[in-house]
Design brief:
155 residues; 2 helices; 86% helix; rod-shaped
């Protein structure tokens, strides 16, 4: 019997490659999300320190321009924090998209793998059937030779 060959093996290989690329993209998106979360935490800390410094200096500041400068500085830090938060939300969306792509590529890959497994099982069943037929034919030939006097079992 011929050796097993899955006709869609090249497609299966392509699907594996696509799935691996999707997983790589997901990992990259998760790393970017983690970095964005870290920048948000840093921005939160900077805003907190700016507000604490303003409260501490509020009693010492007498000029309105110094108070205004502190307020503007705090507003700038809050705007930077809001920008970092927006970037984090974008990264979260990218992670969600990448996760969906990984799930879809995995489903396509598994469908082909199941198809290959079914074809392999059919091949094995057919191979066993062919082996059984060959064994039956061999047994019939040996019986025919013995019954015609060719080989004796008494030797």
């Amino acid at each position: 019997m011929k050796a097993f060959r899955f006709r869609a093996e090249t497609v299966l290989h392509l699907r594996r490659t696509q799935h691996e690329q999707a997983e790589t993209q997901l990992a990259r998106a998760q790393q970017e999300r983690d970095a964005a979360q870290q920048t948000v935490h840093v921005a939160d800390a900077v805003v907190g320190r700016a507000e604490a410094a303003f409260r501490a200096a509020l009693g010492a500041l007498h000029a309105t321009d110094a108070v205004e400068r502190h307020r503007n500085w705090i507003a700038l830090k809050q705007a930077e924090r809001a920008d970092r938060q927006r970037q984090l939300e974008e990264r979260l969306l990218e992670v969600q998209r990448a996760t969906r792509v990984v799930q879809e590529t995995f489903m396509r890959l598994r469908a082909l793998e199941r198809l290959r497994d079914r074809a392999w099982k059919k091949y094995q069943v057919e191979e066993r059937r062919q082996d059984a037929i060959a064994m039956d034919q061999l047994a019939v030939l040996q019986y025919a030779r013995r019954s015609t006097g060719g080989i004796s079992c008494d030797d």
